[in-house]
Amino acid sequence: QQAYKTNAVLEQLDSIAEEGFSPSSLTQYIRNPYQFYEERMLKIKPLKTIEANLSAMDKGTIMHQVLEVLYLPFLNVSLVEDDFNQMLEQLPIVLKQNFDSLYKNDDLRTGKNFIIYNVIEKILKSFLIQERLLVSQGNTLIIKALEHEFSNPVWIENIQKRIVFKGTVDRIDTLNGVLRIVDYKTGNV
Q1: How many angstroms separate the CA atoms of 137 and 162, rounded?
Q2: Burial category of 35 from C-beta neighbours within 10 Å (exposed 0-12, middle 13-18, buried 19 and up)
Q3: pLDDT tens, 36-54?
Q4: When comparing pLDDT for 29 and 94, which is higher?
Q5: What's the rounded Cα separation, in Å, for the pair 128 and 88?
Q6: CA distance 96 to 129
């Protein structure tokens, strides 16, 4: 399938560029340009299906929310091993609360979702243990911001246009004084 770049389409792209491209919209364009055209240009939303299993988006949402809750009390402080011990202790409680708030009951924590739930817990635990090890080896880690929204216009010389990039940064931190922007990926934090 192909969408022709008529003047109307190009004007719509200019309008979207002024409003802002998010990382997910750019990824969608790269992976499936026609789906980008349908959803972003024509504003046709995909049919919602009722899923008995956790969707990839739900998994990502849960993981982001859990990490945000765990790290929030430790913003702008140099993390120590005991901070991660506290987070690891809180992890099962925070995960259950976030899962239950998304699904409102325990009914969806069976079968395949039971496995997915446990995998999410293992991934988050592994991530926290990895960061605790980083700190235990003498590295200085300071979380500066969580789920930080941004919007930044950029002039693109070769097309002579200003395009806005926008989105939400999962985490901004400093590791040994070096500023980092951290993006969590579902299944591979």
Answers
A1: 44
A2: middle
A3: 888 888 888 776 544 445 6
A4: 94
A5: 7
A6: 19
Residue 165 has pLDDT above 90, yes or no: no
pLDDT of residue 6: 83
The CA-atom distances, in angstroms, between 145 and each of 24, 71, 75, 111 are 20, 10, 7, 36
DSSP H helical ranges for the chain: 7-19, 23-31, 33-36, 56-71, 81-103, 111-136
**Size of the chain in residues:** 189
Token pair for 1: 């399938």
Where do we find the tokens 């591979």? 188
pLDDT at 187 over 50: no
Residues contacting 58, CB < 8 A, separation 6+ = 102
3-class SS at 12? Answer: helix
Mutual orientation of helices 56-71 and 81-103 as an angle, nearest 10°?
A: 140
pLDDT at 183: 82
* Distance from the Cα of residue 36 to its chain's centroid: 19
Give the pLDDT score at 109: 64
**Residue among 186, 185, 183 nearest 56 (CA):** 186
Give the residue with greater pLDDT, 57 vs 122: 122
